[in-house]
Amino acid sequence: MDVAAVTHILVVTDPARSADWWTTTLGATVFRGYGSSVVLDLRGTWLLLVTGGGPTADKPGVTFAPPAEPDRVGHALTLRVTDCRAAYEELRGKGVEFLTPPHDWGAEIRCFLRDPDGHLVELSEAR
């Protein structure tokens, strides 16, 4: 198998609102939109924002939905940053709420935030 790219699918309630958040808050760029979906490029990583929906012929029995319980995580994105504390302050200045301030674990400094639909995003500075 020859993998050309990896795309993370985020199920959101409002793709336009989410695209705005990901672009203005975290610097993603809109690659394209189709139907109600939006494809973002976040530093070479593809994010596909889609609305929820029921099973289809290629995924029978599978329903797409935004996180029902934000404190139960099955998927998260990690953004490696050069200065976690500076990124934290910059994003707080944009109104982003964090779970906690950056925590120093010795080998890394990290903190977590959520997108408008509750998807968990980690900021991590490796030391």
Automatic annotation (TrEMBL):
The lineage of its organism: Bacteria, Bacillati, Actinomycetota, Actinomycetes, Micromonosporales. Pfam families: Glyoxalase. This is Catechol 2,3-dioxygenase-like lactoylglutathione lyase family enzyme. Keywords: Lyase, Metal-binding. Residues 2-126 form the VOC domain. PANTHER family: METHYLMALONYL-COA EPIMERASE, RING-CLEAVING DIOXYGENASE-RELATED. One of its GO terms (biological process) is L-methylmalonyl-CoA metabolic process. The keyword tRNA-binding does not apply. One of its GO terms (molecular function) is methylmalonyl-CoA epimerase activity. It comes from the Bacteria. It comes from Longispora fulva.
